[in-house]
Write a structure and sequence with these properties.
The protein starts with a strand and ends with a helix. It folds into 2 domains: 255 residues, Rossmann fold (3-Layer(aba) Sandwich); 102 residues, Rna Polymerase Sigma Factor, Chain: A, CATH 1.10.1740. The protein has 10 helices and 12 strands. 32% of the residues lie in helices and 15% in strands. An 8-stranded mixed β-sheet has the order 1-4-8-5-9-10-11-12, sandwiched between helices. The protein has a two-stranded antiparallel sheet with strand order 2-3. The protein is globular, with a radius of gyration of 20 Å.
Length: 369
Amino acid sequence: MKIQTFVEYFDEPLYLESGRILESYHLKYETYGETNQDASNVIVVFHALTGSHHAAGRYENDTKVGWWDPLIGDGKTLDTTKYCVLCVNVLGSCFGSTGPMSFEGKEKEPMRLNFPVITISDMVTAQINLFKKIGIKSAYAVIGGSMGGMQALCLAVEHPEFTKRAICLASTYATSPWAIAFNKIAMEGVMRDHRFKNGNYDIKDFEEEGMDSFAIGRMAGHISFLSPYSMDKKFGRNYVETDGLYELFGRFQIEKYLEYNGHSFAKRFDPLSYLYIIKAMNIFDATRNYDSLADSLKHIKAKLTLISFKGDYLFMPEEMEFIRATLEDMGRGDKVDYFCIDSNYGHDAFLVEYDKFDFYIKKALEAKQ
């Protein structure tokens, strides 16, 4: 599988949904496989909240593969001998695209809290601009999970001519109060930490130690990504071998897991980027600029494949079911396939239990339009 990484720069302004303007910006992206002669074999993969453009493969001297590596590659579900898979790092991220801590144009300092609030729609618009610039007029399919699913749905609504297939996993048409509540814990942790300095920290401040209260907020996020079943199966009531049961701060294995993941995440993810991206997720609502969900969905020309997971407590199956039901009530049931996967893993099942849903992705890709 051929892997290539690029950065594309835009000197023209990006007009945002808020009315603000980004005078210039750049996007980092990665491709797997090669385009055919008319670039009609491109599959766009949208990443989730903490993901990046690095969706598959392994960099030289790197032990970690891309976040969807089991699905992307030669002979895999997204077969790079047939398709060219492309993944863009979203606007606002800290992994190579323009965000609050990046430098643009003649700026000598990053924008920090002066960076404008961005939406899922803005992320998608920026990517559409990228696709046009690199000669991709349309995609064979678009696909994403969680926040990536929001982007796939948004594109299908707002840029209906771009693709004939849109696949959304573990996602929603509008972020629920339940999900917003988990994000609030992380936001409070970042903003109330004395090292945050109202966004005026040095970009390297947290490389060694991370931000403690950010890590605590991230622990809450991890709880929402799993489920009671998956925690019980993975950790049970097992205690850390080196900790005493009657030590006040002795830990169960689940506590050690949350500590490790929370603190390691706080070392690698920029806190301002996190604030901006979860804000974009929180305000995502496919009905916001329309009279209703039906009014929004009527613009879709692509065939939607919606995949939810029974044990997902963050974006619950009924949220995806409502999209299906709305289309059916509109007399457009032929435009949607819906599958609820029998999974107890939790929200992160779309990143883990590939063998339970890869068949439905293959089916969507092979369907004739």
